[in-house]
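Morning - nicotinamide-adenine-dinucleotide inputs below, output right after.
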Amino acid sequence: MHSSDDVLTRGAFIDGEWIARSENGGFIESVNPANGRVWAKVPDSGAAEIDAAVQAADRALHHSNWSRLAASERGAMLYRYSQLITERRDEIAAAEVSDAGLTLADARTDVGAAAAWFRYFAGLADKIEGTTVPAKPDWHAYTMREPVGVVGAILPWNAPTLMYSWKVAPALAAGNTIVVKPAELTPISALLLAEIALEAGIPPGVLNVVPGYGNTAGEALVAHPKVAKIAFTGEHRTAQHIAKVAADTLKRLSCECGGKAPHIIMADANLPKAANAAASSAFRRAGQSCALGSRIFVQETVHAEFVDLLAQAAEKIRVGDPLDPDTDVGPQASQAQLSKTLSYVDIAHEEKSDLVFGGRKPDEPALADGFYVLPTLFDNVGNDTRLAQEEVFGPVAAVIPFAGEKDVIEAANNVIYGLTAGLWTRDLGTAHRMGRALKAGSIWTNVYPAVHWSLPYGGVKLSGYGRENGLAVMNEYTSTKTVVVNIEDDDE
Ligand code: NAD
């Protein structure tokens, strides 16, 4: 890792101000995974900065114009925010490339999607309605949905801008205030987005972004008594720890954790289309996606044919400099992630799975300093192997042959995760039967992935709980108040 003089420096964003240094005086350096060089640094914030941000968010919640804004005005502000994000798309995308190693194309897609998320929730701000309830003839009983309060958002590094929008957009639409702790590997896009929020007119204190490590800043946010809810995305082991810390203050928690998605290819499927989707979902974004279709179950009668098609599809995927427009797949986001990915190649060899392609870093000398690894496929993988069961979070996929529908349902569900599942078939009965039988938060048939701002997204089992996106997420960011007025006429 090298340092250079032109390192971008950004402060934390607390109460509408840029705080250049943290109380401990340290900085977190962000390494560009395409070349291993430090390109940016941010303050190493801890409990003091988190407390300042939470206090600011709490004041904004109770005493600023924010709490008095009409819901439609809040929506208008978020709509303006979405427009400004679109205007600064290239700048945010460039930061994402240097921070996370996403290709420029993927980063631009993510920023475009983030703007769309803000648009959707801008429209929802004034449609968060309660109900009237016919409980008793003399009671006028109704419910109203109130903001939960100060939200703490804890983000992962694999899709920083998108994950920011998944949390900030609904939280603010519902009238909450928020403190965002981006991942230590990828803090810059959230800080850029904070700057844009000010321009959009979002009042100081309503949105705060505090970069820092998980076990210091992150944990301080989870423990803070004035934080009403934590929206977390990351590994399930981190979520398990956070849930224990959050228990002390009984705060609400939603956990969007990892996945090990089955991607099931029935013999009657459109095989070339399924192969393209399977290759894309296993290898694009350098395999760093929670919805990665990394367990590719293929019906025995089309097994050999499908693996050939998969190899042809994967051959077209170009690994290279994420800034090169011809690149499909950039580097792993960090040296640690590269080492983890390569360790699973060794594990798969030890488990006697058959390597079909990849399994190593690319040969090009220009890529030698970056954290690159080739798309990798192992065939004839046992469903009980570590490769088939554990989240690699890199471009290493397993083909697991199966005989029939019943076998594949059992095998697919035999895993600790349950985030997404993919299915390719032309048979409607199979599609709906398996849609019911597969244990995951989202089942995508003849399309993969199918993520959309209007569709609830989240896991079962160790993939977490709570839902993001769509109308469903508003349950996470509002609490229902019941009001009963006795309207009995005292004079009667
Ligand atoms: P991670 O769990 O290591 O870190 C996630 C965040 O938690 C980071 O901001 C980190 O600083 C923070 N954190 C770590 N320890 C903490 C603590 N003790 N207290 C509070 N915060 C703490 O995960 P990651 O490596 O950044 O992200 C990759 C994981 O995220 C993968 O498992 C992936 O599948 C998952 N993911 C899930 C979704 C989804 O929507 N379900 C989306 C993207 C990524």
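Note: The first strand starts at residue 8 and ends at 9.

O.
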